[in-house]
Structure formats: structure tokens, C-alpha cells
Amino acid sequence: MKVKETHCTVSDLLPNAQYELWVTATNTTGISPASERAVYMTVPSPPVLKPRQCVSSLDAALIRWDSGNTNPVESYTLEFHRTHRPLSSGRSVVAIPSCECLVQLQPWKHYIIHIRAVNIGGPSDRSEPITVSTTGTFFHLLEDTAHPSLSLSADGLTMFYLDEDLPISHMTFSDNTFNRCVAVLGDLVPIRGQYYWEIDMDESAEFRVGVAYEDTQRNSYLGGNNTSWCMRHILTPSRHKYEFLHNGWTPDIRITVQPLRIGVFLDYTRGILSFYNAALRQHLYTFSCQFLHYVQPCFALDNPGALTLCTGLTAPPHVTQP
Fold first, then answer.
1. Is residue 113 part of a domain?
2. Residue range 198-222, pLDDT digits in tens
């Protein structure tokens, strides 16, 4: 590149790439020897936030993104500020080594989140923003854990069903099966707070809903071991039967009014997992235990049917009060 000035703008460089630059001088006599070489690193491309994989609770959010760069970057910076407030009022989390970050937030607020990628050349431009709310429990179903016969919708009200044409032998031995029921897992923020979600179900659906440790064996019943807890509905010729299973054991409980919307309340601090008839605000059962690890929500069907997951809900007072 020939220039007459003592400076030059070099354009069309690749992001997050290293270049060597040197200069020679030219006059009528010829070209001078090259200058010492300078090494320059271009800044990265902006990361790409993944809203469908971001989850939040009342006081925290787990933010995930893709690097947006072919070559590795040194770290990432998460920037957040309240909606309707200027960027200058925001805060940052710096030197994040991977493409996810758990950030503490204030309850009952709405935040705008940006991510920057950083290398020795400096920070990238801000990513496209996402909005995160701390007004309830927001999480998504993990598609890579879903049994092949389950159909997950793209919106927040997630329908899934069991394919009536799928052979029992097929569903029994899938990697994502809790024995006879086909299952899918949800993702929760890994912080020891309170969480609440609700599930609508078909009247005839036989289901299990609950929580399990991440390393729960997938070839055992949900609720059939000491690493999972669930409420189960069984439709018998004479009645609707409900079980509250942990380690294969259930108390003898009779529920006279069939709940078609179930509320699930998880409180790590108090060590409880409670189930409610959400429409009647009726307490059904509470597991009292000390959770040794974080758990994931679990949703499973024992026969063809449909469940609708409702997240982003604030836990009602009758649920949170001891």
C-alpha cells in the first residue's frame, strides 16, 4: 500500500486476528530497508447472546452466549443496566472465561444485557441486547434432553406429547427415558433461592413432574431413586391416583379433586419441594430434604397426552409463607 503521509489506515482486516505490519520509504533512488515489524491484534467480533438458553430467578440470571469468533478470545465482559435508565448507570462483570455467567440482580426489575469479547487488542463492540426480568422463575426446556417422541414448542408455553404410534419398547430404552415414561429436563439458575412454576395437563394424561439431580440415572424411574422427587398421576378404572415418589416410596395420600394445574415450589434454603393444586390454592404434599446439589425440573409422560409448562410466574403468598 503506497501512501504519501506518515500514517495509514488499513481496512478490511479480519476480527480477532494477528497481523504483522512494517513500513518502507521510497524516493527516486529506490526503496529503503523495512522498518521493525509491529504485531497488531484486531479486536473480536461481538458475541451472540442466546435468549432461549438464558434463565432467571428473583435475584439472579444465568446468561449464555456464543463467542461469535473463529479464534479463541481471552475473556468476555457482561454489561447490564436497568431498562429506562442510561447506559452510564450500568455495571459490568469482567474477565469471564467462558460463554456463560451467573450474575446477581435486584428482584422485581427488568435489565438490558450486553456482552463484549476481549483480546489483547481490546474489547469488541457490544452484542445485540436481550432483556432479562427478575419478576419470577424463567427457564426453558432443554431440547437435547427430550425423548424423540416429545414435541416442544418454540414459545414460553411449551407443549409436549407422547406419540401414540411409538412402540413401548422404543420409549423404554431411550437415553432420555425414566423407565416407562418419556421425559425432558428443564434448566434452572444455579443459585440457592426460591423457584416456582406451574404445569397444565390433560385430564387423562398420566404424568410425573418433579426435580432431579443432573447425574440421576436415566434408566430408572423418576422418583424411584434417592436423587429424584416427583408427583405422579395414574388413571385407574375407579379413580385418579396420585403418588409423591422419592427413593421408590410414597405416602398414602388421597386427593379428591383432580388438579389440572399444578404449582411446584422449590426452596433450597428451607429444603422443601412442594406441590399445589394451583387453581384451588390447595397444598398437596411437601418433600422435606436437604438438597446436596442443584436440581433440574423434570417433566414426563407415561401415556399419550400433553403438558403445558408455565414459567415467569411469581410464587403466590400461600406458597412462600412457612
1. yes
2. 999 888 888 899 999 988 776 677 8
Domain count, the chain: 2
Strand runs labelled E in 18-161: 18-21, 26-27, 30-31, 38-41, 48-49, 55-56, 60-66, 75-82, 91-96, 100-104, 110-119, 122-123, 130-133, 158-161
CATH at residue 156: 2.60.120.920
Distance between CA 239 and CA 257 in Å, rounded? 11
- Give the separation between CA 283 and CA 280, rounded to whole angstroms: 9
Region 36-53: mean pLDDT is 93
Q: Given the C-alpha cell 522498518, which residue does it identify?
A: 35
Residue 66, phi-psi category: left (phi > 0), alpha (psi -120 to 50), beta (remainder): beta
Q: Is residue 7 packed enough to be buried (19+ CB in 10 Å), middle (13-18) or exposed (0-12)? A: exposed
First to last CA, the chain: 74
**What distance in Å separates the CA atoms of residue 93 and residue 178, rounded to the nearest whole number?**
39
- Residue 125 and residue 200 in one domain: no
- Tell me which residue has cell 491484534: 41
* Domain end point (choices 133, 156, 190): 133
Question: In terms of domains, do 234 and 111 share one?
Answer: no
Residue 29: inside a domain, yes or no?
no
DSSP 258-316: --SEEEEEEETTTTEEEEEETTTTEEEEEEE---SS-EEEEEEESSS-EEEEE-SBPPP
Q: Are residues 169 and 305 in the same domain?
A: yes
Q: What is the DSSP string of 145-209?
A: GS-TT----SSSSEEEE--TTS-HHHHHT-TTEETTEEEEEB---SSSSEEEEEEEE-TT--EEE
CA distance 74 to 63: 18
Per the model's pLDDT, the better-predicted residue between 113 and 4 turns out to be 113
